[in-house]
Design a protein that fits this description.
This protein is α/β, with parallel strands linked by helices and 213 residues long. α4 runs parallel beside α6. The protein contains 9 helices and 10 strands. The longest helix has 18 residues, at 185-202. It has helices spanning 10-21, 33-43, 56-62, 75-81, 83-86, 115-122, 137-140, 158-169, 185-202, and strands at residues 2-5, 26-30, 51-55, 65-68, 90-93, 98-101, 104-107, 127-130, 149-155, 174-178. It has a single domain, classed as NAD(P)-binding Rossmann-like Domain (Rossmann fold).
């Protein structure tokens, strides 16, 4: 089962929906059980048997693989609280630290270099992978909407990285790309700010495609 920490936001719900449609069981977690259940219930009309909801703690303990989908400002507290339950597990962080200021969007500098590297520092016994930061949440939430995007997957654990690339390929129209070590996750996270600014210019939901590979 895939457990989503802070999965009630658009990105978490969108990814949970697409993986459920691909046949994976997903558990949407939140700080309160009611919010997690509400989020899962909102998606059950699309895939009733594969979507569950509850607290972040339940998501962490019940799931084999974790997706950290909370806003960056909640990452440290959430991961530190669940550290024991996350030991030894693959933790995929989709977090992209951002600053919103009068309509302008920019990347938020992170002391450790990226949200993914910070997560690895918080969870030294977990297998941290950075992925899915650049895929449109709005598009993911529309089951009939075709997805045409590459997902760059960064990590230092090769087996975990291979697993997440395979996972990305389960979403129709998505291709997982090996982005190298976890140190590269910061570059991918920063691209999110660029894409959001492009979206404002073109009134669109942009994504990335890597040519030549």
């Amino acid at each position: 089962m895939l457990g989503f920490l802070g999965g009630t936001g658009p990105e978490g719900k969108g990814l949970a929906l697409r993986f459920a449609l691909a046949g994976e069981k997903v558990f949407i977690g939140s700080r309160t059980s009611s919010r997690g259940i509400e989020a899962s219930n909102s998606l059950k009309k699309f895939s009733d048997n594969n979507i569950f909801g509850g607290t972040n703690s339940e998501a962490a303990s019940k799931s084999d693989v974790i997706v950290a989908a909370m806003p960056y400002e909640g990452q440290r507290e959430t991961l530190e609280t669940l550290k024991t339950s996350l030991t030894g597990k693959i933790v995929i962080t989709v977090v992209a630290p951002l600053i919103f200021n009068k309509g302008a969007i920019s990347a938020l500098p992170v002391k450790d270099g990226s949200a993914a590297l910070e997560a690895q520092k918080i969870l030294p016994e977990s297998r941290i992978i950075g992925a899915f930061q650049n895929i449109s949440a709005r598009d993911l939430l529309i089951p009939s909407k075709p997805i045409d995007a590459d997902v760059i997957v960064c990590g230092d654990d090769q087996d975990a990285k291979d697993y997440v690339i395979t996972l990305a390929n389960m979403i129709q129209g998505v291709r997982g790309i090996n982005g190298g070590g976890l140190k590269n996750a910061g570059y991918v996270e920063n691209l999110t700010a660029l894409l959001l600014n492009i979206n404002q210019v073109y009134k669109s939901h942009s994504s990335i495609k890597i040519s030549g590979v």
